[in-house]
């Protein structure tokens, strides 16, 4: 299997395959505040409210705007690959479900909308789960070629490569659907192809359009082909620039890139791109031909074009050899002082401190209708809220239903490890006790 189930879940479009939709329910138990202040504004809380203090604390950090930070450098490198594009990076992470989902034609019952998958301030306001949330407003402002970098938020499990906040870069270009404008795109395609042909890159391509990955009915299929090719050529040359020096691209070992058919609610045809790195195919981005309804909503119905969204952490972890996604959030000088603006360097681990795991087993309440239901992501958010980045990963290690009482039992293993120091057993026990007491308060569980 190419992708783990969880990797599949990461992609909004595929969430429906592996996550059942869940009804909204209250996250904070009795003492929930009636309003919450986020980035200076008060929001009334309601049954959707599930944003946690840990997440609120990340909203103003803007790692992608710190010049020496690996995410800042990567943003600048990608921006300089597209010099004629507008470069946007200051948009607020607080958006409406309309921006994040409806404006992009997500169906009303899409699981990505559920409170178990996304962070809501209340039912009308949420944290963007992807940079595509800004497509309509950006096209509506008259931008025709742009890059937009931002922090995005998704509720998820915890491990070394998943974090509830990460950074994406959206890129898009739209063109007038006229013969003369399409001719210019074809000329651009010829130039880009010639450049790639001279370079040491092996591309496993797929047909631009197929019956399962169709052109849109309102598009001339020849235009769709030209746009899809333009998208592929731009991205292949970006990947060559980013990975060419690292992943090989020498005579003996060329850079290998492969294109895969994909599905997103807001593009057709759609693709994913993977890069071969240290013996594995790594998924780097999603992209496609922008759905015409998005451009109609943005008041540019006569245009057509492409868009892509790439994950910056995933790429930075490869380029800098950063082994754990939590490191991006480190304020430790031993991390931060290693980097200079605009330069990719290999991260030198300062040491790996010992891990310490603790298990907690409990019965879920036997009258669940009287309590907030607990989802794996609720457990992870709770652990992260209590223990911060000391949580390295969280796993369910046992799950069963008692045959006589019908009660559900769960056992979670939390792996604690600091990136900066050794943790004492007493310290970890105290944190674990706090996790347990919050668990009891919030979800009414009975510890076994
Ligand atoms: N927003 C998509 C995601 O987060 C990526 C994407 C962007 C796909 C633009 C197509 C076009 O998975």
TrEMBL record:
Chain ranges of the FDX-ACB domain: 351-448
One GO cellular component assignment for this chain's record is: mitochondrial matrix
Q: Which Pfam families match?
A: FDX-ACB, tRNA-synt_2d
Q: Could you tell me the keywords of this UniProt record?
A: Aminoacyl-tRNA synthetase, ATP-binding, Ligase, Mitochondrion, Nucleotide-binding, Protein biosynthesis, Transit peptide
Which protein family is named in the record?
Belongs to the class-II aminoacyl-tRNA synthetase family.
* Domain Aminoacyl-transfer RNA synthetases class-II family profile, residue spans: 75-341
Single GO MF annotation: phenylalanine-tRNA ligase activity
Task: Indicate where this protein resides in the cell.
Answer: Mitochondrion matrix
Query: Which SMART domains does its entry note?
Result: FDX-ACB
Q: What is this protein called?
A: Phenylalanine--tRNA ligase, mitochondrial
Quote the function comment for this protein.
Is responsible for the charging of tRNA(Phe) with phenylalanine in mitochondrial translation.
**Catalysis performed (reactions):** tRNA(Phe) + L-phenylalanine + ATP = L-phenylalanyl-tRNA(Phe) + AMP + diphosphate + H(+)
Looking up InterPro entries in the UniProt record yields: aa-tRNA-synth_II (IPR006195), aa-tRNA-synth_II/BPL/LPL (IPR045864), Fdx_antiC-bd (IPR005121), Fdx_antiC-bd_sf (IPR036690), Phe-tRNA-synth_IIc_mito (IPR004530), Phenylalanyl-tRNA_Synthase (IPR002319)
Q: Which domain of life is it from?
A: Eukaryota
**According to the UniProt record, what class of enzyme is this?**
ligase
Write the Enzyme Commission number(s) for this entry.
Answer: 6.1.1.20
- Which biological process terms from the Gene Ontology are attached to this UniProt entry? phenylalanyl-tRNA aminoacylation
């Amino acid at each position: 299997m190419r992708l783990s189930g969880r990797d599949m879940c990461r992609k909004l479009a595929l969430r429906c395959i592996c996550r059942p939709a869940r009804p909204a329910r209250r996250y904070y138990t009795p003492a929930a505040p009636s309003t919450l202040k986020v980035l200076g504004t008060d929001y009334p809380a309601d049954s959707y409210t599930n944003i946690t203090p840990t997440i609120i604390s990340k909203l103003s950090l803007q790692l992608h705007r710190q010049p020496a930070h690996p995410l800042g450098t990567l943003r600048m490198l990608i921006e300089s690959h597209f010099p004629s594009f507008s470069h946007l990076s200051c948009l607020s992470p607080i958006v409406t479900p309309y921006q994040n989902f409806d404006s992009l034609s997500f169906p009303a019952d899409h699981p990505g909308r559920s409170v178990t998958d996304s962070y809501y301030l209340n039912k009308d306001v949420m944290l963007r789960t992807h940079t595509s949330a800004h497509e309509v407003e950006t096209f509506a402002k008259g931008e025709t070629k742009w890059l937009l970098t931002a922090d995005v938020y998704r509720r998820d499990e915890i491990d070394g490569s998943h974090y509830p906040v990460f950074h994406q870069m959206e890129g898009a270009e739209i063109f007038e659907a006229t013969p003369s404008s399409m001719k210019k795109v074809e000329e651009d395609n010829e130039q880009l192809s010639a450049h790639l042909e001279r370079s040491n890159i092996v591309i496993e391509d797929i047909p631009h359009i197929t019956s399962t990955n169709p052109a849109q009915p309102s598009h001339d299929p020849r235009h769709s082909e030209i746009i899809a090719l333009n998208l592929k050529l731009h991205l292949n040359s970006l990947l060559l620039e980013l990975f060419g020096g690292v992943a090989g691209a020498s005579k003996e070992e060329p850079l290998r890139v492969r294109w895969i058919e994909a599905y997103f609610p807001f593009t057709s045809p759609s693709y994913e791109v993977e890069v071969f790195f240290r013996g594995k195919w790594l998924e780097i981005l999603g992209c496609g031909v922008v759905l015409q309804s998005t451009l109609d909503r943005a008041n540019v119905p006569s245009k057509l074009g492409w868009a892509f969204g790439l994950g910056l952490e995933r790429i930075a972890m490869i380029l800098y050899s950063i082994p754990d996604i939590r490191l991006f959030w480190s304020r430790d000088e031993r991390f931060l002082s290693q980097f200079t603006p605009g330069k990719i360097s290999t991260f030198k681990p300062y040491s790996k401190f010992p891990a310490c795991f603790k298990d907690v087993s409990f019965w879920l309440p036997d009258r669940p209708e009287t309590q907030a239901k607990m989802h794996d992501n609720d457990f992870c958010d709770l652990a992260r809220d209590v223990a911060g980045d000391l949580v390295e990963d969280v796993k369910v290690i046992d799950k069963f239903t008692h045959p006589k009482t019908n009660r559900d039992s769960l056992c979670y293993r939390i792996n604690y490890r600091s990136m900066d120091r050794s943790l004492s057993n007493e310290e970890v026990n105290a944190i674990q006790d706090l996790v347990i007491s919050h668990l009891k308060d919030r979800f009414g569980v009975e510890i076994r």
